[in-house]
Amino acid sequence: MSKTAIIIRREFLSRVRKKSFLVMTILGPVLMAAIIIVPVFIAQLSDSDYNVAVVDDSTLFYESFSDTDNIRFTPLVLNVDEALTLMHEGRFDAVLHIPETAFQAPSSLRLFSAKSINFNAKLLIENILKHDYESIKLGLAGIDPEVLAAIETPVRIQAFRIQNDGELTTDFPEISMGLGFIGGFLIYIFIFLFGSQVLRGVLEEKTNRIVEIIVSSVKPFQLMMGKVIGVGLVGLAQFLIWIILTFSIVGIVQVSFPGMFQFTPDDQVHITSSQLLNAEEIAKQHELIQQHNTVGGQLMEGLAAINFPVMILSFIFYFLGGYLLYAAFFAAIGSAVDNESDTQQFMLPVTVPLLLSIIMIQMIINNPSGPVAFWMSIIPLTSPVIMMVRIPFGVPYAEIALSAGLLIMGFIFTIWFSAKIYRTGILMYGKKSSYRELWKWIRHS
Length: 445
Fold this sequence. Notes:
Layout: H1 3-16, H2 19-44, E1 50-56, E2 71-75, H3 80-88, E3 94-98, E4 110-112, H4 119-140, H5 145-151, E5 160-162, E6 168-170, H6 173-207, H7 210-214, H8 220-256, H9 279-292, H10 295-304, H11 308-336, H12 344-359, H13 361-366, H14 371-376, H15 383-390, H16 397-425, H17 435-443
Parallel strand pairs: 1-2, 1-3
Antiparallel strand pairs: 3-4, 5-6
Helix pairs in contact: 1-8, 2-8, 6-8, 6-11, 6-15, 8-11, 8-16, 11-12, 11-15, 11-16, 16-17
């Protein structure tokens, strides 16, 4: 076995055997599965009812308020003071007061509550009253209410993505946004997490003077590469275990609770020949199906439209590429200083591209095909994060190939560059390094 392989094996096994590795390996997939499953459970749980008493002195809006799943409206033929008394007795959560002059002065509307007002209830009341105000005003202008009802058209657009072979696949941009953000953020976290392990490992061996013994039988470059690759394999192994366990947990929950994941796509709604020419019947049929679709079902349908093999392989490649690129920098920084506090002056310029990538994620999500997204996904220092944000939206293979090629060239150059600092800095003690010193080490052949 080569010396580099021995170092890789030692770095890998020493970290895999730690309790922290076992804890995170088990906890990681549980948290990742929870991101998918917990919102579904929360959506299934019915919130406690929010009861609103309606005191309408104008008598124009009593019939406007209809109950929803967890908001209840109770019209009261009382004055507002009596209604507020009932609220303080616990009969109601809030009291909506519509004075006689409400139509002429909408600003006179009041919603009272002894506790913080439910935002959804307030928004629902505002939408109902806004609609009724508009209807009354248009009616006073001589426009038939039936005409108004006829022109109200709910619009729901189903998105499709045209593949290279011309095949249509359902597109869920919301799911793509979520996966893009999570993928980019995980790459950022993993690079920092495992890169910092390399830095601390190098710094620890240097301060303990163990490195003097090691380099007597191993070349500095072999030592650096062994550390970088060994820690990287730990991260890769942990990620693969996470993926397997996450899909297993989600699959078990999906099989155990099928009712939570019910979903019927629009293109599978059965329409009889008699309904085919009746637009109203078609709309009713679609609405009936949508009522039985669950949040979990819609989420799983959106996830099913994502090409997960491409996502996983891309994540592995960009994690390894980004990690190798930055871990070499971290190893060089660890070798150039004597204590962790001195690393800050060198860490900032190295980590700025990663921080910029995180800052730009929202902009990239809003325009994943724009010039900023393209160039940041091509430049090696930012491509690991930004390309992972773009991939769920669909990226041409030529751009992925260009980005991957430049990333490979980038980490090869970075390893060569960092090795020059590492081989000198690893044996330097008692002297604070500066950028001028690092430049001398780099130029030294």
